[in-house]
Amino acid sequence: MGWESVRGRGGTRERTGERRPVWSGGDLSTAVALATAQLPTAGLLTFIDLSGRDDYGAGNGGALGAVFLLFLAPVLLPLLGVAQAFMLALPSVVAARLAGRRLGGPSWPWYLVAPVVPAAFWSALVASLGSWPFTSTFAVLAGLGVLPTLGVGWVRRRALRPAGVWWWAAAGSFGLAVLTLVGGVLASEAGLVPQYEPPRLTAAQLTGVWRDGSGAELRLHADGSAEAVKLPTEPAAFTDDDFSDYVVCAGPGTWAPRRTWRDGVLVELDGDCGRDTQWSVGGSEDAPQLFVLFGDPDAGTLRILERA
User: Fold this and answer.
1) Does the pLDDT at position 11 exceed 70?
2) Checking DSSP bridges between strand 225-233 and strand 247-259, what pairing results, if any?
3) Please, are residues 122 and 87 in contact by the beta-carbon 8 Å criterion?
4) In the predicted model, what is the mean pLDDT of residues 69-90?
5) Residues whose CB is less than 8 angstroms from the CB of residue 278 and which lie 6 or more positions away in sequence, other chains included
C-alpha cells in the first residue's frame, strides 16, 4: 500500500495505509530525474559566480578542466543525480510525510521545508571534517534538495509515468540552462557581474609578515631582505624533490617586487633548499594575499599567505 492524496478543509495532504514511511520506485525515478535536471543550471550559476572571484592562477587550466567535465557530463550527471536523490530528496520525502501525518495540514509546505533536515546533517558532517563552512554548505544542499523533494510529492499526486517525468525534466533542464547562460552573458556585458581584478600593492605595502594556517611564515623587510619559516618553495630541478609540487624551506633570503601577469614578489632563499619562488598578489585591497599554485594548474597545490 502506498501514499495517496486526499482533499480536505486544510488543503491537499497525503495519507498512507502503512505504519512507516516508504518510497516507491517511481519516487526514486522522479527524484533522480529532477536532481539531475537542475545540475547544469547549478553548474552555470557556479561558473558565473566564480568568474567574479580570483582563480588563483588556474586560468586556462581551469577552463580545460571544465571542458573535460563537459565530455563526462552524460555519465557524471546521472550519477550525481542518484547521489542527490539518496542523500537529500528521499530523506526529505520521508521527513515531509512524517510531519504531514503527525502534524497535519497541507502537504506541500512540509515538502518545501523538509530538505533542511538532510542538508543540516550533511553540512555538519562536512564542516566537522574542515572541508567547507557549515553555512554555505547548508544553503547549497538545502537549495539542491527543494526541487526534487517537491517534485516527488507533485508527481505522486498526479500519478505521472516515469518516462514522462524524465522527458519533461530533460526539456526543462535544457531550457533553464539556456536562459541562465544567456542571462549570465547579458549580466556580464552590462557590468552586473563584476570581473575580478587583483589588488596592486606597492613595495611598502608588500613589506611585513605573511602567514598561513599551516605554520608557514614569510617576513619581507623594507631593505629587501627576507626570512622564511616552513615556507613552501619551488623544488630544485634535477633532484629527488623535482617530483614534488613543492618543498618546505626556512632561513634568510631576499625579495623584490615582480610583475608578470599580475603583481607579486620574487623570493630567493639562501642555501640549497628549493629555488626562487614567485608569489603573486591576490585577495583584495583590504585583505591582500600572496599565493603560489604549485604543480599542475588543474590538480596542483595552492598555498596562500595572508598579512599577519
Assistant:
1) no
2) antiparallel
3) yes
4) 84
5) 258, 260, 264, 265, 266, 267, 292
Give every CB contact of residue 52 below 8 A, 6+ residues apart in sequence: 193, 194, 195, 196
Distance between CA atoms of residues 36 and 76, nearest Å: 10
pLDDT tens across 86-103, in order? 999 999 998 988 888 888
Place of cell 575580478: 196
Please list, in sequence order, all residues whose beta carbon lies within 8 angstroms of the beta carbon of residue 153, skipping any fewer than 6 positions away. 14, 93, 96, 107, 108, 111
DSSP state of 234: P
Q: Which residue has the cell 495540514?
A: 105
DSSP-assigned states of every residue in 147-174: HHHHHHHHHHHHT--HHHHHHHHHHHHH
Domain ranges in the chain?
A: 3-189, 203-307
Per-residue pLDDT at 15: 44
What is the DSSP secondary structure assignment for residue 114, as one 8-state letter?
T
**187, 250, 270, 280, 303 from 53: Cα distances, Å:** 16, 31, 35, 15, 17
Q: Return the number of other C-beta atoms located less than 10 Å from residue 169's C-beta.
A: 23
CA distance 13 to 107: 4
Distance separating alpha carbons of residues 280 and 289, to the nearest angstrom:
8
Does the domain spanning 203-307 belong to CATH 2.40.128?
Answer: yes
What are the grid coordinates assigned to 157, written together?
499526486
